[in-house]
Amino acid sequence: MDKSQIKEYHKKSWKEKRKKILERDNYRCQNCGRTQEDGVKLDVHHIRYFKNTKAYDYPDGILQTLCAACHLAEHSGIPQYGWTYEYPEDIGEFGAEQCEKCGRDFRHVHVLYHPDWGFLRVGETCAKILMNDISLIEQNQKEMLEKANKLKRFIDSPDWKHIKNLYLYKNKDNTIKIWENSPYNFVLEYFKYDIHEKEKGFKTLNAAKERAYEILHPDFSTKSRIVDEATFFDLPENPQKRVSVLVDLFYNCIVKSKKIIRPIYPAQPEPIDAKEIICDNVHKNKFDQKFDYDIVVSVGNGKYKCYIKFIFDQDISQEEYLKIKECAVNYIKVDCTSLAKRTSTSLREIDNILYNTRTYPNYQWVSAPTFDEWIKNNK
């Protein structure tokens, strides 16, 4: 599907046609019978395609409601073989994400990789189907549950002492202090012998406690990797597929680290330095805007959104630039041209591009209409 076809699905005519078909089919997948109440995403599927016919001009009889999984199966979207298991991840809250294969809500994520697809975030059942290795998935599922239980016991432990705005935890060698500076601003301090470290930017007490547990147990992570970060991944030869895989790599890295870099803002009388910003949520492009982007992050308890575009070869066109300005959104582009013609990359390299302080100039504002308010609330 090219960009001109994608644009058809943003138009009012398609939205009206889509609603009509969903209502006709009682908001139920015509293949498996599931509904949105079952936790699936519903699509409207074209049973067959005609040349020179817009998406919304098809007769109703050629359209049907399918859940995301059945829709992908119809288009043979997800490869059924050739997947490798990357790592499990506990996102901490049921329903915070949906399986990218079947659309169901989940909490425990299994991240798979395919050289022609990129990364895929799926639930336990879909991981078993794609990997054809039940024992591997069940073992990682068991480990995630054990880690989640240990973390919960630590967070709820009576060893935490609450004194005014201080939460204090001590054991034989370590002291953890969490200061509640405001309802959504927690600061963590860690003391061990002559070591004293401080971390800021935690939006909740539990987030600060989880970080404290990771400090006390360095081998613990709700996002533990099976593949070493130095491992290199082969990239597809096809340029479009290569970009798709790279975008997935960047997306997964930001999802795990829950942060982006706020670029230097040159429009200020004295340029404001780049700094890390904690993200509340990270989502891929859902083709829900007039302009093109790769991912969107929300910060400040969801109050601010920022759209991000990874630049591999061609810069943002003048036409796209005008659309971004017209929509008055915060928009950042990240220079990734060093990867444009690469045949392989590693997770460490992706992380380095995103977070190495020497690469901060790679981040550039395209549009920042709410920057002044944002900077005021994210000092």
Structure description:
The protein is α+β, with helices and mostly antiparallel strands. The protein has three domains: 72 residues, 3-Layer(aba) Sandwich (His-Me finger endonuclease fold); 60 residues; 146 residues. It contains ten helices and 21 strands. A hairpin with a 2-residue loop joins strand 11 and strand 12. Helix 4 packs antiparallel against helix 5 and helix 7 packs across helix 9. The two termini are 42 Å apart.
Features:
His-Me finger endonuclease fold; alpha+beta; 28% strand; single chain; five-stranded mixed sheet; globular; 3 domains; 30% helix; five-stranded antiparallel sheet; 379 residues; 10 helices
SSE inventory with pairings:
Layout: H1 3-8, H2 12-24, E1 42-46, E2 63-67, H3 68-74, E3 84-90, E4 97-98, E5 105-106, E6 108-114, E7 118-122, H4 124-131, H5 134-155, E8 161-163, E9 166-170, E10 175-182, E11 185-192, E12 195-202, H6 205-216, E13 232-234, H7 239-257, E14 259-262, E15 275-278, E16 281-284, E17 295-299, E18 304-311, H8 318-327, E19 330-335, E20 344-346, H9 347-355, E21 363-367, H10 371-377
Parallel strand pairs: 18-19
Antiparallel strand pairs: 1-2, 3-6, 4-5, 6-7, 8-9, 9-10, 10-11, 11-12, 13-20, 14-15, 16-17, 17-18, 19-21
Helix pairs in contact: 4-5, 7-9
